Amino acid sequence: MTHTLRLPTAEGRTEPYTPRPEPAYTVPEGPPRCRVAYAAAHVVSDPYADNTPGAPAVLDWDRTLAFRHELWRWGFGVAEAMDTAQRGMGLDWPTAAELVRRSAAEARSVGGRLVAGVCSDHLTSPEPGLAEVTAAYLEQLAVVEEAGAVPVIMASRALARAATGPDDYLTVYAKVLDQVSGPAVLHWLGEMFDPQLRGYWGSTDLDAASGTVLTLLRAHAERIDGIKVSLLDAERERWLRAQLPAGVRLYTGDDFHYSELVLGDADGHSDALLGVLAAIAPPASQALRALDAGDVPGYRAAMEPTVPLGRLLFTAPTQHYKTGIVFLAWLNGHQPHFGMVNGAQSARSLTHLAELFRRADHAGALLHPELAVRRMRALLEVHGLTN
Fold first, then answer.
1. pTM score, two decimals?
2. What gap in Å lies between CA 87 and CA 41, rounded to an integer?
3. Fewer CB atoms inside 10 A, N or C side of the chain?
């Protein structure tokens, strides 16, 4: 079978495309030494279940957990039950709690690193009070810590509704951090990832919001491992990184500028907690090994070609990046279908997916081109485009 296929373009035509030969990567002996790097992992839906919008999530547990092992194999830690796993977009808390428990057991079996999301998304009240939000956070914190995972205190839609200003955020987070058993990770998720988080930290002014975040970090530094910043604003991240208390990491969540932020400069670098790493694990692993060896050109050669892919994956509406992550996992053989919980596979257009195919190939992220072509050809045929 020829590897050439005709892919649709945004101009309403098709063009021939032939992927590059299968890339060659070497699995690392362990995690990178130069940076702490977590890949936020997606979930694999059960293709026989009713995973339509609004239905409870039903997962293919074997393949969901196998993908975590794939990330550990490439040297990454796993960030579990976060927005990449469709928290707030189809993954309900009971299923997320079971996911954390199962992933933690798998992590222990291989010595893999694991952090997991703690939020308040199981609240049902449309107008929760601060006490309710705090209690919800603590309920989920207990589950995550009992499982043995490091908690990531996620941004809360309920808190965004309940808070009347910065002091309310500081109060709730202080009560949650007071209960963590070890250093936790905080998460500042921008409104481009979730419009319901607009004005988080009590202000739509990023300078004011940053001031509130720094007040929190400085007051509780001994209980905070780091903060994941997902604002897609490299300059804001560099500035914030320079203000952090000693010992507190900046985990970049910037899926546009991660290559330069992780590399860093004379003023420092960011560590990583990124959804894009799940889509580019082999080339990103190669890049970090080069950085371990002090080989900056080697790092750039492996990591920079992935950036156009990341920019397209996370293009607006950014919250639908999960569709592209699952699409690439399907192309690469990590799952047998392109279905998602909440029916989210429909959130991106065919031309968007076709361009993801091209950019993944250029990034060295199509691991088995023959399989990828076969699956892409089948998807095109479903849409009436014969190849």
1. 0.96
2. 11
3. N
